[in-house]
Design a protein that fits this description.
- The structure is a single chain.
- About 35% of the residues lie in helices and about 25% in strands.
- It is α+β, with helices and mostly antiparallel strands.
- β2 and β3 form a beta hairpin.
- α10 packs antiparallel against α12, α14 runs antiparallel to α15 and α15 runs antiparallel to α16.
- The protein is globular.
- The N terminus is likely disordered.
């Protein structure tokens, strides 16, 4: 514990010294403090917000989600049509270039779609297996034929991980591309200093470059929440994202700062490793759900800003089931269930993201709550960059993480969380064949009423199985200096940096 605190203080000092020599004073360069570093610039090999939010600055997609987060608008595709049978989509591409000056072609788009479907390293392959063929009838016309009707298909085209990549560059050296990519977005990657920052510069070849005010953007890694808030308060950085709930009131009182709380699709939840001992039993997972007081967590850890969650589909999103089951806080019943299951004295390894104030507060609260049900939760604080790998390898029992939707349709999150094994059902190892089959059927159902009923059933089934434990919903909370305007996120989390101005 002392060693961890000492490391945090050293890291904080290093961050401040590093920032004093940065481009923070450059009028046209926006400096953004965030709590973790990117993992890759290969879009198909990540499912993390820390990557996707930068992908949207560097790459472009065929179809975009607008600033309100409610409708699809043209991206690299100026227009698209759908055949009467719903199986063929034809996209007409605009005149656009990659950052190296080469043209964006329908061949590049076809390559990108088949790659996200077929590449062994793709985390999104199952979501794109609905594609039968993707071909270029000419340089500006992409024709995609599906194996069957798919309501979410057009929404999937807006996924940052389905960005259009330059075929020649990727095939020449995919590892080099993952470090320093070539894209067609508003900014291009000048340098990636791992563990420190990503330096972006305005892309002069961007098809809408005249709309971009900033000369560049620096995404700076400042893991410690307190250090990140201090740096924006003192003007070391222009923006700090992911403001701790406990600091919102203080930041709002600062005349030099603007706090934004944008509507989001964020849901925080407790992941449970179903492959670890007693956690494979539904009644044990139900006991954990009963032992956690979500209202107390919302009040204490989110300062009342959050809202108790009742479903993996967030409030305000398509097909959210408002009447889904919410188990009451009942530690005595939890004790009884654990005793009946032969799991008295259960001890769990709880992986916690170190340096994230809210995560650490929640960890202490949950540890205390579980103790009342006779469960011992040993807190293992690790760097956020390490916790992801631990979840993938299954080196955990429980861990609180979060998800924000990347597309408008509920199929994306449903597929990841309930419907397939590409991402180990989002690290929980949850398996239910009936649920998996219903996920696949809901993806293909074209009748809106029937489709909604399917997603209602899925929310009920997931809750009954305790695939994970829903905790709370919350907005995106970011703070910026007063000279920064139009810095915002839509509900899916995309930062519209092409709109941002720094005076």
């Amino acid at each position: 514990m002392q060693f961890t605190m000492k490391k945090a203080k050293i890291a904080a000092l290093a961050a401040i010294l590093s920032l004093s020599a940065s481009y923070a004073d450059a009028t046209g360069v926006l400096t953004i403090g965030r709590n973790e570093d990117s993992t890759t610039f290969d879009p198909i090999k990540s499912a993390q917000n820390v990557d996707n939010w930068v992908f949207s600055n560097v790459f472009d997609v065929l179809v975009r989600v607008d600033a309100s987060g409610t409708k699809l608008v043209p991206g690299l595709a100026e227009s698209w049509t759908v055949s009467d049978d719903g199986l063929t989509y034809t996209f007409k591409l605009r005149d656009a270039k990659f950052s190296d000056g080469s043209p964006v072609t329908a061949g590049d788009a076809a390559f990108s779609l088949t790659r996200i479907r077929d590449d062994k390293g793709s985390l999104w392959s199952d979501s794109f297996k609905i594609i039968d063929t993707a071909t270029a009838s000419d340089d500006k016309t992409l024709v995609v034929k599906l194996k069957g009707k798919s309501v979410p298909f057009i929404s999937m085209m807006a996924l940052p991980n389905a960005s259009v990549l330059p075929k020649k560059v990727v095939e020449a050296n995919v590892d080099a591309f993952a470090e320093k990519p070539v894209g067609s977005g508003a900014f291009t990657v000048a340098e990636w200093r791992r563990g420190d920052r990503i330096i972006l510069k305005k892309n002069p070849n961007y098809w809408d470059a005249g709309h971009v005010s900033l000369d560049g953007v620096e995404w700076i890694v400042i893991p410690d929440d307190n250090t990140r808030m201090l740096n924006v308060q003192t003007g070391q950085i222009d923006v700090a994202i992911t403001v701790p709930f406990s600091r919102v009131a203080e930041m709002k009182k600062n005349p030099d700062l603007t706090v934004r709380m944008d509507p989001s699709t964020r849901e925080d939840h407790m992941l449970i490793n179903h492959e670890h001992g007693a956690l494979a039993r539904k009644d044990v997972r139900e006991a954990l759900d009963l032992a956690i007081d979500k209202k107390a967590i919302v009040e204490a850890a989110t300062f009342g800003i959050g809202e108790v969650a009742n479903s993996y589909i967030p409030k305000g999103a398509l097909y959210h089931y408002a009447d889904n089951l919410q188990r009451p806080y009942d530690p005595e019943k939890a004790k009884q269930l654990l005793k009946a299951a032969g799991a008295e004295g259960l001890t769990l390894n709880y992986v916690v993201n170190a340096g994230k104030e809210t995560d650490e507060q929640i960890a202490v609260l949950i540890q205390q709550q579980l103790a009342k049900a006779g469960v011992t939760a040993n807190l293992q604080k690790v760097d956020p960059s390490q916790s992801w790998d631990m979840l993938i390898t299954g080196d955990y029992d429980i861990s609180v993480m979060y998800w924000t939707n990347d597309i408008l349709d509920p199929d994306q999150k449903t597929t990841f969380v309930l419907g397939h094994d590409t991402n180990l059902n989002y690290m929980t190892r949850y398996k239910n064949d009936k649920v998996k089959d219903l996920v696949a059927a809901a993806r293909l159902e074209t009748d809106p009423a029937k489709r909604e009923a399917m997603y209602v059933d899925l929310q009920k089934m997931a809750k009954a199985d305790v695939n994970w434990i829903d905790l709370y919903y919350s907005p995106y909370i970011n703070v910026m200096r007063k000279n920064v305007t139009n810095f915002y996120q839509n509900p899916l989390g995309r930062f519209f940096l092409e709109d941002t101005v720094k005076n």
